[in-house]
Amino acid sequence: MKKTALIIGFILVCNIAFTQNLTFYGLLPAFNQTGRISKKVNYNLFISTTIDAFDEKINSVEYPATDLQFYLQPSIIYVHSQNLNFAGSYTYQRNNPFNGNFVNEHRLWQQAIFSFPVSSGRLTNRFRFEERFIENKVTGEYPFSTRARYQVGFNIPLQGRTLDKHEFYFNSYNEFYFSLTGAKNATYSENWTYAGCGYDLGKIGRLELGYLFQVAVRNTQQDLRFLNLAQIMWITNFNFPKKKKE
Amino acid sequence: MNKITTSLTLLLLTSLTVFGQDYGFSKKSVSMTVQNFIQTNYPTAKRLKYYKEQENDKTYIECEFKLDKVEYSLKFLADSLVETEISIEFSDISTNQQQSIKASLNSLFSKYKILESQEVNPKTNPLYEINIKTKSGNYFELFYDKSGQLVKKTEIFIKPIPSQF
Q1: Would A13 be classed as within a structural domain?
Q2: ipTM for the complex?
Q3: Do B11 and A210 count as a contact with CB atoms less than 8 A apart?
Q4: Closest Cα of chain A to B16: distance in Å?
Q5: What does the alpha-carbon distance between residue B160 and residue B114 come to, in Å, rounded to a whole number?
Q6: Architecture of the CATH domain B22-85
Q7: pTM of the entire structure?
């Protein structure tokens, strides 16, 4: 009888432990530079790091504060029109970058953004298709997987019709992640929600501060990981001056 | 959970504070001189909207309205009217001027589409502003005087739609 009670107790404890969602709080500093290559072609460099800022103890498991992810995303953008852009990229991502158990990911993606004015703001729809090569630490191989993402966003200048120097703006989006092929925990595997306010600093770009809420399915039992992040982003739009012809 | 609630409350408060500023620029924030000018000169103006615009370190007040189904845009600097823009159809421009402008456009671009036409400062320094899109997808803003002669041509560079991650 005691044995049965112990087993049931053990199963219950295991269940509680296994169905545990994890919640973390942190920071996401990011840098975003866009520049012109030609009239129609632009480049973008996006660099960020995701920091879990607090030590957490969940079900007797210690989760020390750490850098969770380093993200480097150069991309080429084709500006078809004011309302339609296409882009492609090679992206490098390193999870747990400063730990021995780091995982590298090489990723290619292609995207289309369709945007149109709504009220005094702009609604954007972004469709992205990713080809991912995520390192398997056991085999040392990089198995292939694919993912589709759809982002719907809204941004609006808060002081006038256009965003001018020393003015505020509001930016928000929700993004749905769908793992299609390869190793996956779920098809609808991730969701990111963001809302923030930015300020145009003039020549040195814009500074944006917001709240990013990331939800990810972290295992095949459909347990979730919640990441509450304070995102701070420096956005620049520098163009190299053209050499004047003699 | 408390941390989430605190973060969301702070974000909401920040957004509300910023939204509470001069988006759309309420009529109360516009000087009586500007309001009286519009009331006197355009007494039947409808759907008045005021905006604050920053250009080259100068702050302008822009007023947009409709009058007899025509869109007007007035720009003020320190309570003085500096620019008047009236949206017109290209076909509303006199035939001779139309022909001159079209000849100029044809000489500059092999294929183009007129997106918008405006009459600028009709009472002081009258110009026509023509916005076009070329076959290759480039955008231009061209200014013509009343004789249909090109005064200024500016290419409009379109910035990419912002995208992160």
Answers
A1: no
A2: 0.81
A3: yes
A4: 11
A5: 22
A6: Roll (3.10)
A7: 0.80
